[in-house]
Amino acid sequence: MKGKILKIGTLLCLALSLGLALAACGDADTGTVPSDRGGALTDSGRLLTLSRGEPDPSLGEEGDICLVAETGLLYRKSAEGWSETSLTGYSASGSVLTVTYTDGSVGAYDMTATAGECAHETFGEPVTVYPARCVIPGIAVKTCTECHEAFPVILPATGEHEYAEGSYTCLYCGTANYFKDVKPDSSGRYVIEDMREVPFGEEGELVIPGEIDGHEVVIGEEAFGSYSQGENETLKSVVIGEGVKEIGGHAFQNCTELESVVFPESLTVLGADPDDGTLYDDYRSIFEGCTSLKSVTFKGDVTVVGKRTFFDCSSLFSIELPDSLKEIGSEAFCGSGLESVTLPADIQLGSLVFSGCSKLSNVTFEGLVMGSGKDSERALISSSCFKNCTSLKTISLPEGIEEIGSSAFDGCSALTGIAIPASVTTIGETAFQYCSSIASLTFGERSELNSIGRKAFYCGGNYKPRNEELQTVILPEGLEAIGSDAFTYCISLKWVVIPSTLQSFGGTSVFNHCDSLQLFYKGDPTTWSSIKNANSLTKIVHYFSLEAETGCWYWQDGVPKIWE
Questions:
Q1: Could you tell me the CA-to-CA distances from 215 to 161, 177, 182, 211, 300 in Å, in that order?
Q2: Measured over all CA atoms, what is the biggest interatomic distance in the chain, rounded to whole angstroms?
Q3: Strand pairing of 518-521 and 495-498?
């Protein structure tokens, strides 16, 4: 076949509409078949100029070939005439034309077999046979205007992807671009939105770019999820690109298949105004209801996790909060699957942050925790912070805490003991309500406790279990007020020591249903009568007086004893 030249006719490329598998075969030297294709280099020949259909029997020499893109057929000229072979695909790379036959074998044709034999230099405009696509080279023909020899021309890939209507996958190379329709807003930022129905393929993986055309990318409100309009059902993992600073409210809410998310260093506030960290409602609930979410990775110095950010993420068993974190908004992890959590020092906690985390059994404080809003300068356990954490058995509150907020540990039914730091001045209403397993309640030396709120240790009622474990409580000097029903249904209480500083009981129900209780008051009957509602309590009262001979009490081995 020496001296033959491969020529390609002016054929219309209808290969794609006929279902041909077209793909670039990679770089290849002349006379070499790429290793991933297999097969062997076949004889090269001359491809006759045709517009469509099979070649004219009168044309061609033995060894010539003819590729008809319209039908996917390859013709070869022998002494007996033209023979027809079906193809399943063809592609071009460098100087090699590669074809795939229906039996899976591969043939490769050297398109430069006799390049340079034409002595003329005048050529007409190349005619495209197979147009170039995004990453797929095309084939054209240039024809000498003097000798009419035709030479193949490789058309470089365009780099431009093409999509069917409603599709995000390139028709020709299969590359996915989920952000092809994202347009810049008036400020030049590219805002990702309305992607709730975009299919993300079998793997469900999404990488969000940090910028598009050199401009900042923003993940808009309800971009992939919603509290009212449905959510994306194919999204499983998200990696947010470096440069993204803002994620809008409800952006991934109720994406129930989402399993993992990675945040970039550039993202410093999550669920808050990125300019000043303000916890606006517009930025809430970013991952609320993502019930499959298991892995959350912070790469940067995140300072804020906003309201309801991980609300009801029931598969989120662990999370490593960065030391840079300064604030967690209300209900941020409410109802999540967290089993343990370590809180950085001086972090501000909103209300209900870990409420309903029924698997949470270990909480570590690396320092003080602060309130939020008007209480942001006060060291306290926020209201309902650990409400209904039913697996929490023990907790070590940091010294320096000033207040245990209302319902802070309400419903922590597994909590067996609580040591109140000396720094606490207030135990809020229902702070330990329904903590029916508390057996030990102690107060730090030189306690500053001033008040115990209504129903602070209340158990029972409405078919709730009574506390049958707590037997002795020694209230510290300095305490002035005990709220109504503070110890109601602590049915095993035997001894409660009342400090001489007490000024009021919140009604007669403070110790309701504590039928075996005896009160030991650090004073005499006169001062006892001055305490508001004291004389209404139907409990046995003993007074501490070294001068008295009977009816008084003293300490023995840390418990009150009646003088005989």
A1: 21, 17, 12, 5, 21
A2: 138
A3: parallel
How far, in Å, CA of 272 to CA of 332, rounded?
12
Produce one character per residue of 394-411: b if its CB has 16 or more CB atoms within 10 Å, e if not: ebebbeebbbbbbbbbbb
Across 19-28, 80-89, 334-343, least confident range: 19-28
Q: What is the mean pLDDT of residues 381-392?
A: 97
What average pLDDT does this structure show over 393-401? 95
Mode of pairing for the β-strands spanning 518-521 and 540-543:
parallel
Q: What is the assigned CATH class of domain 416-564? A: alpha beta
Task: Find the helix or strand (DSSP H, E) in which 529 lies.
Answer: helix 525-530
Identity of the amino acid at 69:
A
Range of lowest pLDDT (124-138, 231-245, 502-516): 124-138
Counting beta carbons within 10 angstroms of the beta carbon of residue 144, is it exposed (0 to 12), middle (13 to 18) or buried (19 or more)?
middle
pLDDT score for 42:
42
User: Mean of the pLDDT values across residues 233-247?
Assistant: 93
The span from the CA of 352 to the CA of 382, in Å, is 8
Structural class in CATH, domain 178-338: alpha beta
* Distance between CA atoms of residues 427 and 397, nearest Å: 13
Q: Where are the domains of the chain?
A: 1-175, 178-338, 416-564
Phi and psi at residue 56, to the nearest 5°: -65, 125
- The dihedral region occupied by 485, where left means phi > 0, alpha psi between -120 and 50, and beta the remainder, is left
Contact in structure between 106 and 37 (CB atoms under 8 Å):
yes
d(CA 65, CA 46): 6
pTM of the predicted model as reported, rounded to 2 decimal places: 0.76
Amino acid code (one letter) for 324: S
Query: Span 108-126, mean pLDDT?
Result: 61
Rg (the chain; Cα; Å) = 40
pLDDT band at 269 (very low <50, low <70, confident <90, very high): confident
- Give residue 135's pLDDT: 82
Give me the percent of the chain exceeding a pLDDT of 90: 51
SS3 374: helix
pLDDT tens for each residue of 152-181 = 777 888 888 988 888 888 888 888 889 988
Contact criterion met (CB below 8 Å) for 7 and 141: yes
pLDDT value, residue 413: 96
Residue 68: the pLDDT is 64
Task: Measure CA of the first residue to CA of the last residue in the chain; give whole Å.
Answer: 127
Helix/strand/coil for 375: helix
The residues with which 189 forms a beta bridge, in sequence order, are none
Q: Look up residue 39 and give its amino acid.
A: G
Run of H or E including 76: strand 73-78
CB-CB contact of 544 with 563 (8 Å): no
Query: Strand 380-381 relative to strand 417-420: parallel, antiparallel, unpaired?
Result: unpaired
Tokens of 243: 């440069």
Same fold flag, 178-338 and 416-564 = yes
Among all chains, which residue has been given the structure tokens 């070499």?
32
